[in-house]
Write a structure and sequence with these properties.
This protein is α/β, with parallel strands linked by helices and 241 residues long. 34% of the residues lie in helices and 24% in strands. α6 links the parallel β3 and β4. α3 runs antiparallel to α4.
Amino acid sequence: MKGVLSCWIMILLFSAAAGQSPQNQSRGEEWVRREEMIKTQLIARGITSARVLEAFQKVPRHRFVPDPYRRYAYADQPLPIGEGQTISQPYIVAYMTEILDIKPGEKVLEIGTGSGYQAAILSEMEALVYSVEINPVLSEMARKALAGTGYENLRLKTGDGYQGWPEHAPYDAVLVTCSPSAIPGPLKEQLAEGGRMIIPVGKQYTIQYLVLLEKKNGKIRQKNVLPVRFVPMVNEKGKNY
């Protein structure tokens, strides 16, 4: 009962804060839809980070979804973004963001830019974002979507995410949005001391788990935190890792 009460107190406080802002009132229907998404999909499921919730309120998710699916942009489900890929449901994006406990100024590597939505959330978290997408079509779409919504303080690269982005390593956090059958060695190597990584692991059409890795004293510890289903991580020839 105490947990439920705390959750509803947070909902009321968040709603009040949003309602008091003249800027919020001018946002219209999409702002209201984001607010409802946050209440029913994020807070109700245990997302508590005020910084994560604020980022989700600010980022216009519908701008990162293809036109035919924009009406479902704030629904509790993944959506197609083209090229056989999807944008994850809001809760999964929030969960992965929150578990990394990203602090302002930290350097974050994202593998799988996709539509650019997760990169926008990380940018709102005041991280220094480096994002890699192997599909050139999606990479260009994400670049345009991010620029069109004002997110220009991040770096994007078209390339093989399995290899990470060694030129800018080490990273305080690594967030992977596609599933390899095993954790890529290069991503472990590019993790800074005290760094964290969240990555879905498992073959396509089998049980996958989000795995949280933490590097302390030069050693990496890992644990499974949530069963999930993600698109596979692929190489430049389209074969699954």
